[in-house]
Amino acid sequence: MNHTLRIYMVVPCSEVLGPYKRFIVWVQGCNRRCKGCIARDSWELDGGELLKIDDLVQQILHQDNIEGITVSGGEPFLHQEALCELISKVRKHKDLGVIIYTGMNYEEIKDTDLAKMADIIIDGEYIEELNDDKSLRGSCNQNVICVSDRYCDVIDSLYGHNGRKVEFIPNDGRFDMIGIPSKSVTDTFIK
Predict the structure, then answer these.
(1) If pLDDT is split at 50, 70 and 90, which confidence band does 104 have?
(2) Which of 131, 52, 143, 162 lies closest to 104, judged by CA?
(3) Which of 7, 16, 91, 125, by CA, is between 20 and 30 Å from 133?
(4) Within 13 Å and on the Cβ side, how many CA atoms surround 141?
């Protein structure tokens, strides 16, 4: 098994990338390089920080107030083996839900072990021209797929509605933006 994971960033508790309070993991490395991507610093395959999976498991398990984990990036499906190990180890101790954001289409990944471990997958390449400012996805071509029934009762109330939320988290003298920003926030802070 792979015992490390290349990480762009982690946030121990957030409420803007799925239902309830979640531990957020952004993996490092993406070969899609979508125009208008808000996480351009996560593209380089050898960037970020290499973390031991067991250390990340401990960080997640020590967050008492979370209901789940959200994985984004970068591209999570470039790190399938390591993410499967992470999720398996966490779930041995805590029943946490898993949401994965991927630039791949669900049909490409649905039979992978990582996809089968998810409760929700938000799939599809980000297309800037299709950004419709709807909640919890970047562009209207992206699909919200319930892989399990864990979030079926809340899914319709969360995804595809007007209004987006972001959080600003202090990080070494700067602020990191967490969430999927509206077009006006993107224009103000990113472009």
Answers:
(1) very high
(2) 143
(3) 7
(4) 12
